[in-house]
Amino acid sequence: MVRSVVYAVYARRLLARLAGAELPRHVAMVMDGNRRWARQMGFGDPRVGHRYGAEHLDEVLGWCAEAGIRHVTVFVASVDNVRKRDATEVGNLMRMIEDVVAERLRRPASPWQVHLAGRLDVLPDSTRHALKLAEEETRGPGPASHLTIAIGYDGREEIVDAVRSLLSEAGSLDEALRTLTADRIAAHLYTSGSPDPDLVIRTSGERRMSGFLLWQAAYSELYFCDVYWPGFRKVDFLRALRSYAARHRRFGA
């Protein structure tokens, strides 16, 4: 009881300190540590962590909305996650995405417009269908908050695919080389149309990007949090925003 009261007071204090601060327009998150969290909590099957992690996304999106953050990108699974991990574990993860993530985002009350980024062809048919349905049913006119789900994703493959797409548009190789620019490559990325992330948060204590948004995060501020994703608390999120607000962004200068 005392701990929860102290926690609530601290969270309100953090939130008050952010009033008037420059906050990120776009936050990207690597939701890492689901299985390790399950082991830490004493679950016999660490795959249970995937369900807790999927359900926790709903809560974190609520914090983003409360802070006025209108663009969020989450790294759900890489191409290697889908291709190389145990088939039973991958199947469990895909079911969580279908039953929890895609289904909840389709609710009429959800403010999030869904976008997909990655090699959807590596996903099971049912998962691909559920995500595409969420994307289609949340598409609409007018202002909205935007959630990009990076799944079957690899940053290097994304850049290769973008260059390949750009070259296929050109009438000749000479024309392609003459008109090749960074902006034209960016226009062919999976995330085309979305602003680059201002802040990238990775949970679990790992301090690497793991191929996530390699092009888009070139000038992003990075924040590494030592807690596992299902245990990522509102105060952890607010600390990340506080860290961002205290930095002077130099955009590579």
Automatic annotation (TrEMBL):
First-level EC class: transferase
Keywords for this protein: Magnesium, Metal-binding, Transferase
Listed EC numbers: 2.5.1.-
Active-site residues (renumbered): 32, 81 (proton acceptor)
One Pfam family it belongs to: Prenyltransf
Origin: domain of life: Bacteria
Cross-referenced PROSITE patterns: UPP_SYNTHASE
Record CDD domains: Cis_IPPS
Coiled-coil positions: none
Membrane-crossing residue ranges in chain numbering: none
Cofactor: Mg(2+)
Record-linked InterPro entries: UPP_synth-like, UPP_synth-like_CS, UPP_synth-like_sf
Residues noted as binding substrate in the record, renumbered to the chain: 33-37, 47, 50, 78-80, 85, 202, 208-210
Record's cofactor remark: Binds 2 magnesium ions per subunit.
Binding residues for Mg(2+): 32, 221
The protein's assembly and partners: Homodimer.
Family listed: Belongs to the UPP synthase family. Z-FPP synthase subfamily.
Free-text function comment from the UniProt entry: Catalyzes the condensation of isopentenyl diphosphate (IPP) with allylic pyrophosphates generating different type of terpenoids.
PANTHER family: DEHYDRODOLICHYL DIPHOSPHATE SYNTHASE COMPLEX SUBUNIT DHDDS, DEHYDRODOLICHYL DIPHOSPHATE SYNTHASE FAMILY MEMBER
Protein name: Isoprenyl transferase
Gene that encodes it: uppS_2
